[in-house]
Design goal:
Two copies of one chain form a homodimer. Chain A has 397 residues and is of the alpha/beta class. Chain A has 15 helices and 13 strands.
């Protein structure tokens, strides 16, 4: 008898992951070269050479007992310092090692942050469309996930609407920019407006409301004019969650961090809680060898040009055909309005053409599909004529 | 404002980890060579050379996208198969990849198992003395940790006493052999007696009661005549949790597995739940590169002779002085009756001699201290005269 809470989760097991398995099965049946799998955010781009070299250097130059051993639950002191220094250089923050907790990826980090802050019954606010796993993470701490409806067609949060969803029970607001699944980057004006609302609401209710900035795609922006504001500068009660899964193509390694604002309420207690939560949730610490590698590659980034080209090819190709796409400034997702109302039905029809996509319903926003373009350019090329025939078919429905 | 549940945890933050920090501070003050830190289970033994070689081979021979990429939440199929084959060779089990879930260490594995099985209010049974973190893990799933009192002086569970602690709410029993903190290995007769009790109780209550065998020390036994029974052979509803932290000196890497008995109740649902729990708790998957390394080193073990010598030097040395020690057949801990009643006071006095130990209270069993002997032989040598003077001091109290 599995746990009650797990029964539904097991039954409805993540749409995204199911598609992953389905893709594998279709590949075996029809040949991998014929299946266009746009379903998963698994970078089809090797980690930069710097990673391989750093792994070699670490195991040759550093002591094995140290490299593979326990350290403080928050991570190696020097690694945390290297991360803090890198953030300070790039974003003008004033972090030290004490502001950084190394985490088992962004997913691990978000669970650690929620465990540290959330009481049962607290509300966590997210903006639709959102990464479906937020719902599970909120459930882990018996919180209620409150969803602000999508603001179409820009998919930028509207501060006035947002304000209506903040209650005395709101403890955390998740901001995810560059956004999964829309690829939209929130400009500074949006961040300022949201921060203003939260400051007012904190005063009105006499509560602390924390922003958790979920930023695994921070580095993945495709135009020099697009800036991703660093949120600790705009709002004191901010934690920034990061992962090198995308920027260094290391999703399997489970390595990320939480950066805590110097001005956050109860800094000492909160950073201690993050440390303890890392331990008691069973993470214990972020994987050690990869932490040491990160210290040596902290300013490296994967080949963004690869993703930019993919974006342009896919966005331009589909837009020209007549698909209604949100132009993604960042991340590696394309968010498309489905030509028929039912996004799940559309995704099913697409499968006949060996096109694997994720229906918007998985992100709390019907009538759209998400394509991940962290794939081979060849696959995008192969897919375009298929998308064209698909559009013709559904137009005639 | 941190979460209510975290407040006490932050305040009482793990005794073991506090000692770790304290040891560092004492080392800075008095010189590392003068501090004898027996407090933490952090192997002072480098990982076998095979690990270094395997890391190099993996990054040279395998595709980087594959090595650092996502895979099924339960782990790479071939790695799980390699683990299953190794268990089959060594213990005569009949596992396939489907029986194995790769985990973020044993701590990650235990949290995944509890999330998969436990409903709020369920009871999880542990035998005193026990690894103090069990209490936190049980709390994560709102379970009640029921503690069977220590059976002195053997520290082997007594089946009749055990039976009294099994109720209709019992969902899981944790068996940890070789044991932390006593070093005791449960013989087959003990396992059979406990399994018989559980089968009877399952029938009586019409419930399923699962054994979680927490086995990070399985390979660490110091005598060919000592066998560690593999629990799936004795009881159907068994999950075995393992970690390579100790056997391959990789505690920082967070790599382990859960092996699920073929005959466990609801095998399909349970293994799916373990997969989903790995995902939603934020682990997502066990770190990928180290998974691939494990596949190449699955039968390797650290230098047991190193630990055996340490055990003999410490156990013989302290016993001869007059300390009342439990002879450890396995793990790398020595469990000593404190010469004064108050174990915390004794540990405090020991600190004056720069001897760092963990009071038994941290393991739910007063009147004892635990020494970890995964340390340098030199440190044990240095410590012996200190322990002698310490004993003389407390005898005169």
């Amino acid at each position: 008898m599995i746990a009650e809470k797990m029964k539904e989760l097991v039954a409805n097991s993540s749409v995204i992951r199911k598609m992953f398995e389905e893709g594998k099965n279709l590949s075996e049946k029809y040949g991998a070269e014929n299946v266009c799998d746009f379903s998963l955010g698994n970078p089809n781009l090797a980690a930069p050479d710097g990673i391989k070299n750093a792994i070699k250097s670490v195991i040759e130059e550093e002591d094995a007992v140290f490299v593979h051993g326990y350290m403080n639950n928050s991570g190696y002191e020097d690694v945390r310092k290297a991360v803090a220094d890198s953030l300070n250089r790039r974003f003008g923050t004033e972090f030290g090692a004490e502001n950084i907790v190394m985490t088992v990826g962004a997913a691990g980090g978000m669970n650690v942050a929620m465990k540290s802050l959330i009481n049962p019954g607290d509300e966590i606010v997210a903006f639709a469309p959102f990464f479906g796993e937020y719902r599970c993470y909120a459930s882990n701490v018996d919180a209620k996930l409150v969803v602000v409806p999508a603001n179409e067609p820009s998919f930028l949060p509207d501060a006035e609407v947002f304000a209506k969803y903040i209650t005395p029970k709101t403890k955390m607001v998740i901001i995810n920019s560059p956004n999964n699944p829309t690829g939209v980057v929130y400009p500074e004006s949006t961040i300022i407006a949201l921060a203003d609302v939260l400051r007012e609401k904190q005063k009105e209710y006499g509560t602390e409301i924390y922003i958790f900035a979920d930023e695994p795609y921070r580095e993945l922006v495709y135009d020099d004019t697009v800036k991703v504001p660093f949120l600790t500068k705009y709002y004191d009660n901010t934690l920034v969650g990061y992962s090198w899964s995308k920027s260094l193509s290391l999703p399997g390694e489970r390595i990320g961090y939480i950066a805590v604002s110097n001005k956050i309420a109860n800094f000492e207690d909160l950073t201690s809680a993050l440390n303890v939560a890392t331990r008691i949730l069973g993470f214990v610490n972020a994987p050690s060898l990869i932490q040491r590698v990160i210290a040596r590659c902290v300013d490296d980034v994967a080949d963004l040009e690869f993703y930019r080209k993919n974006r342009d090819m896919l966005y331009n190709g589909l837009s020209e055909m007549g698909y209604d796409c949100v132009k993604p400034d960042g991340a590696f997702y394309l968010w498309i309005k489905t030509p028929i109302e039912d996004d799940s039905e559309f995704a099913e029809i697409a499968k006949k053409y060996l096109l694997l996509t994720v229906p918007g319903s998985a992100f709390g926003c019907k009538g759209y599909i998400r394509l991940s373009y962290c794939v081979s350019p060849k696959m995008i090329e192969t897919s375009l004529p298929k998308f064209k025939t698909l559009l013709e078919e559904v137009k005639n429905m």
